[in-house]
Amino acid sequence: xxxxxxxxxxxxxxxxxxxxxxxxxxxxxxxxxxxxxxxxxxxxxxxxxxxxxxxxxxxxxxxxxxxxxxxxxxxxxxxxxxxxxxxxxxxxxxxxxxxxxxxxxxxxxxxxxxxxxxxxxxxxxxxxxxxxxxxxxxxxxxxxxxxxxxxxxxxxxxxxxxxxxxxxxxxxxxxxxxxxxxxxxx
Length: 186
What we know:
- By secondary structure, the protein is an alpha+beta fold.
- The protein has two helices and eleven strands.
- It folds into two domains: 53 residues; 129 residues, Umud Fragment, subunit A.
- The strands form two sheets. The chain has a seven-stranded antiparallel sheet.
- A hairpin with a 2-residue loop joins strand 6 and strand 7.
């Protein structure tokens, strides 16, 4: 055999082995891409359903704090580490419409809420509400002039910041803790 034909055969064998390595590498890369895609989809699902979620305000019950059609993040994780507290702006399961609502927590478990003379009192003390427009009155709905609510265990009293245009605890009563999904990040 001539030297030239031996070199050609060796080159052909070497080139065939390189192709096998390339095929394995391409197969591995394709598998890695699929695996990354699966982990990405799972991560998105976990983050968007259990940690942070995009929410859009519908309606004007939280004006002047939040406006209709504005978008915010809902922090669902925070209440795994602490209880909801007064002044938190939260998303909750609306007990009347079976949808979701954005409201402000005014009082929590064991608190007494009094609505008197257009003012809100929690445990006998007038509530300071710097987030409301000046001189915004808070009256009970229907024909009552004053209203007192004593909150039980795991109950919260919520109000919209637009007191004249909000269905809230004045309408449907205290909200159970299990109905509060998370706090709005502004």
